[in-house]
Amino acid sequence: LDQASPSYRTHAITLDVLYADTDAMGIVYYANYLRFFEAGRLGYICAFAEDHARWVPEGVRLPVTQVNCRYRRPAQVFERITVETVLQNVKRASFGFAYRILRGGELLVEGETDHAYTDETGRVRRFDERILRFLANARQ
Amino acid sequence: LDQASPSYRTHAITLDVLYADTDAMGIVYYANYLRFFEAGRLGYICAFAEDHARWVPEGVRLPVTQVNCRYRRPAQVFERITVETVLQNVKRASFGFAYRILRGGELLVEGETDHAYTDETGRVRRFDERILRFLANARQ
Amino acid sequence: LDQASPSYRTHAITLDVLYADTDAMGIVYYANYLRFFEAGRLGYICAFAEDHARWVPEGVRLPVTQVNCRYRRPAQVFERITVETVLQNVKRASFGFAYRILRGGELLVEGETDHAYTDETGRVRRFDERILRFLANARQ
Amino acid sequence: LDQASPSYRTHAITLDVLYADTDAMGIVYYANYLRFFEAGRLGYICAFAEDHARWVPEGVRLPVTQVNCRYRRPAQVFERITVETVLQNVKRASFGFAYRILRGGELLVEGETDHAYTDETGRVRRFDERILRFLANARQ
Lengths: 140, 140, 140, 140
Fold this sequence. Notes:
Chain A is α+β, with helices and mostly antiparallel strands. In chain A, 19% of the residues lie in helices and 32% in strands.
């Protein structure tokens, strides 16, 4: 009867690990998985926001307010990895994403980010038509 | 009666924010605060491990198993920031650090990392004399 | 009559510019085009070296000895760019690549890298069967 | 009598190499020396421009138009390196820097960058009082 939180679609991209992503431990540097999260996020927005090309020029900003990341197994240079991204924590002026980074079927890293929805000066705003359409498209 | 967890000293470093650290939102890119955490961590180890110069050549590795980060206010290019680092979560074969990034007295970002203690092949090992001396030096 | 230097095939990849690639000037940070060069290089090796998946595990290293880069026009976040890569300067134990980064038909950045061919300890070696096959595959 | 090109002072900073700077070859990733160049450049500007804190807020931009870099010997994680920076190629609306990266007395990497002097929209401008004072301060 009361509304369960809606569930959102998952979107996957693949990436090839570069030397640029790794460090002298021979594995991907821990901060660079957050870059992979961003690539997953961009892929998600391109998949479900029809007007995504105008988001940046029209002042849409999604600054990160929080990130959590658990490192299970390391990725290495030249490996092909998959980033699975899904919307979550949709609120009035913020939303989040959860990420799973895999190599083949093996889970390497998982994490979450939360984002504010702001204009280009950093001022938070309520969701407008643009975001509501994006969220509707992403629902299962 | 029961043992309170020991408390550790805090160590601070200062950094100047480069364009390399920022992104097109005009502020430090969210993953680059993890680089600042690493700089704080390296400063901490250099302050309290007398033999720190031999850690890497002698096979000490401290891979990150988890990171959490909350972004309060953004840092910008050319600003001088402080990274305060303190040991925490000391266990049998792992420990963690907590970080606070400040500009003047203002808190910008705070976070935590957890680390395994491994050899250069990534195999976890129990703390040896080297680590125990480091931990003892860092205690208040 | 005398041998003209052989000419090699060009290989192109496309990339989407992330916030991670940009800086507070609102454009791609100058060092990150060298990351794009690496992505072009990896694409080139994957296209023309049949055994590329074994290069890293079997100790092939191609450390950069020189890079030059001219910046004509900047790339911006969310833009799709193309990296065109071509082999050049093939010598006895070294070779190079030339790169052109384009957005649509517009040239943004061009540059070159030179590489030594070494083992995993950094010792230079003469070209072996592996490299000769790669070079032959890349010739027009 | 004939004008020699004026000679400028050299400014040195020291840096500690982080894992963030390295890659899976166990050495500093080639693009990250350009980050070290930027740190040297920032140190230079802070040393010789009295009003450097207002450069960014007041719209001074110095986009890179060209970079060259020769890699002699690699730097490794936890090493302390020195970046020596010196002005050169001073023209009407552009100038350059030359860099030498050293470990102890040993030369690791050397390179040069050229920069346009622009406003925040990227429009080139002639040198004003601000830049002329900076150049005068930097002269030997």
